[in-house]
């Protein structure tokens, strides 16, 4: 280290030695101070000198994880989005809403032929659905969870122009539970849809259960 007054240097052996005249007023490198050896010095700058690499560390240990560990589980990716390209008229009975446009079906858990989504992974799911309204007809579209109504969208149909209604919510689903859409019975009800996909149904897994 440099002694008070910056007149001497303490070497690694503990002895004191005077600062060479050529170093006075300059910045002295740490290597020079510690080893007592001359180091490249420029006025106002320190030339850094890289030391030799250290010895390699010990090898890491191998951990045997069980096959049912989370480290071995594939990511649980579930998402689908479907839509209709044509309208649907009401009938004297309830109608399951079917779709003819598949936009996304990650995981393959939505059956386009039956119009049913079957839960494979338990967790919290984001669910959204929309419906176009036919002027002069009402909309009453139910979201069915394993055969029971959990939510719906409704429109009186009194407007002379086409409305759209939509809804979204979160549901805690268990394996084998199903989701699908149902149009209320009655000829006063109808759904409008065309190539702009006014009537749609989308679900994705937000938070899987651990």
UniProtKB/TrEMBL annotation:
Keywords: Secreted, Signal. Residues 1-16 have a biased composition (Polar residues). Residues 73-210 form the C1q domain. It is found in: Secreted. One of its GO terms (cellular component) is extracellular space. Residues 1-21 are annotated as: Disordered. InterPro entries: C1q_dom, Cerebellin_Synaptic_Org, Tumour_necrosis_fac-like_dom. Its main location: secreted. It holds the Pfam family C1q. This is Complement C1q tumor necrosis factor-related protein 4-like.
């Amino acid at each position: 280290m440099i002694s008070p007054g910056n007149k001497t240097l303490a070497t690694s052996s503990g002895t004191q030695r005077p600062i060479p005249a050529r170093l006075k007023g300059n910045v002295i490198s740490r290597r020079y101070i510690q080893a007592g050896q001359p180091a490249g010095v420029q006025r106002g700058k320190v030339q850094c000198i890289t030391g030799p690499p250290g010895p390699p560390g010990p090898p890491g240990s191998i951990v045997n994880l069980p096959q049912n560990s989370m480290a071995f589980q594939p990511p649980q990716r579930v998402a689908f989005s479907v839509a209709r390209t044509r309208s649907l008229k009401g009938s004297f009975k309830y109608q399951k809403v079917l779709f003819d446009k598949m936009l996304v079906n990650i995981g393959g858990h939505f059956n386009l032929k039956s119009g049913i989504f079957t839960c494979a992974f338990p967790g919290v799911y984001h669910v959204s659905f929309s419906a176009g309204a036919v002027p002069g007809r009402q909309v009453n579209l139910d979201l069915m969870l394993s055969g029971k109504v959990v939510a719906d969208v409704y429109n009186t149909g009194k407007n002379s122009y086409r409305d759209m209604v939509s809804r979204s919510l979160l549901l805690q689903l268990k394996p084998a539970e199903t989701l699908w859409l149902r149009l209320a019975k009655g000829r006063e009800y109808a759904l409008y849809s065309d190539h702009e996909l006014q009537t749609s149904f989308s679900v994705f897994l937000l938070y899987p259960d651990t």
